Input
Amino acid sequence: MTYADFFYEIKNRFMGTDVSDIQEHFAFQFSIEDEEAGGIFYVEVKDGQLFVEPYEYYDRDAIFTCNPDTLMKIADGKMDPVWAFTTQKLKVEGDIGKALKLKEIIELKQKQLKNKKKR
Output
């Protein structure tokens, strides 16, 4: 899988998540370590909207570093980001308090998927 393939796969997993209840601004940079799918992108919540873009974010709150498999599992709700951090599958630099917002976004997405399936 190339970086472009991986990025669009992750973007599709995050996009559509309703973050309108989150009024706080935060931005995370993801550094993916892999020979083929490695690269950098960011996730930002701003004005109740979620953005995922394939660029470096210089004014970020936190940097997450991991391999593609770990991030896919986190994005799918199959791996808890706090557990991934404590087992060193996910490295975090920066504001840990804001970094925990990643878990909130994942939980929102999972809740929205469950509600969608119930309909």
Q: What stands out?
A: The chain has a mean pLDDT of 94. Residues 3-109 form a domain with the Nonspecific Lipid-transfer Protein; Chain A fold (CATH 3.30.1050.10). The chain has five helices and five strands.
